[in-house]
Amino acid sequence: MPETPPAAPVSVPTSDQNEPLLSDQILAGIRSRAAGYDQANTFFSDDLEELVAAGYLRALVPTRFGGLGHTLAQTARAQTRLAAYAPATALGVNMHLIWTGVAASLYAQGDHSLDFLLEEAGRGEIFAFGVSEPGNDLVLFGSTTDAIPQPDGGYRFTGTKVFTSLSPVWTRLGTLGLDSSDPDDPAIVWAFLDRADAGIHSKDDWDTLGMRASQSQSTVLNGALARPDRVVRRLPVGPNGDPLVAGIFANFEILLSAVYTGIGQRALELAVAGAHRRTSRRNDGRTHAQDPVARWRVGELVIAMDGIYPQIDALARAVDERSFTVGPAWFAQLSGLKYRATQNAKFVVDTAVQVAGGSAFNASSELARLYRDVLAGFFHPSDADSAHATAAASALGPIDLRTS
């Protein structure tokens, strides 16, 4: 029997060569801990410590605020690379990177409403997303959380947020709520909360099928206070093209797509290793790497992965270069990217399991963990229904709700 080769690395296409944000040594350590975090259902504490020390959480923060000043395209590639080593770690860090990406984008446009976020992220504060709510499929355009205006211009928030990644460690929470104090002018309020506020409680309720190390626990807000200088928007209920909303949508969809593409990248590597490892008595003891069916399957995976990298890169560069127009077509491209990337990753993992064989069915195998992790992609916005509705609206226009 031939010696089993290591998983073959699959290079991510890139149009400019930059030093990687994370060394091979750091990534190897992160991979070595991933299975243990998953099995114990614990947060990636040691990973985070190394990522912070490497400056990774400051990747998108402009240099004048103490960051590395990387572009969204560079950071998306880095997130794909990190996710190939530890998906849950990459997903958790993603939420902080999204906020810094939004703030950097606004800053580049001359909008200084989130400069405080860049300053604090540059000093080491960790930002989390307090947006998703049980039963709220309006996501950015509506809220079941009450935002109660205060005399000084601040707001108190009361409601429950779910899927709050980085729950054990975040220090700042970006959130939204509904100000219905004026029934004729309800508004969505965006603001940032401080972890030290007594009105914030994280539930210990993260016991999921996959992405376990992200520890994306529910967060209960009970009159949590956002100071006036931390209230950044008061917007109409419903879809709008405000730069904050557009920035959130773009950074969220692109960086999320990058994470799940990393899962697909690793699954392909493991499929290649599995094809070299498995032998067939039916084929005179040759490895499955020589089997036409296995080769066709691996070829399908290579084609699938080659198609998604340039899509992520193109949209990330459009954000970096401001070469897009906010509107139905842009939102359709972003939601379509997220849908394709997560569906693509699921297909690649499914097929990689077939190529690797029965060993992948073992609960301790890396492919089994990837199989569980990749399922989380279905639950992030934009989901399949939303992505298709957005794409249809960009081509057909909005649904006519008038009655005849």
What are the low-pLDDT stretches, counting only 5+ consecutive residues below 50?
1-17
The percentage of residues in β strands lies in 5-15%
CATH homologous superfamily of the largest domain - what is it? Butyryl-CoA Dehydrogenase, subunit A, domain 3
Number of helices: 10
Mean pLDDT: 92
Gyration radius, to the nearest Å?
22 Å
According to CATH, what is the topology of the largest domain?
Butyryl-CoA Dehydrogenase, subunit A, domain 3
The H/E string reads HHHHHEEEEEEEEHEEHHHH
- Determine the fraction of residues in helical runs and give it as a percent range: 40-55%
CATH architecture field of the largest domain: Up-down Bundle
Q: Could you give the distance between the termini?
A: 74 Å
Number of domains: 3
Largest sheet: 4 strands, mixed
> What structural class should be given to the helix and strand makeup?
alpha+beta
GO molecular function, one term: flavin adenine dinucleotide binding
Keywords: FAD, Flavoprotein, Oxidoreductase
Cofactor: FAD
Family: Belongs to the acyl-CoA dehydrogenase family.
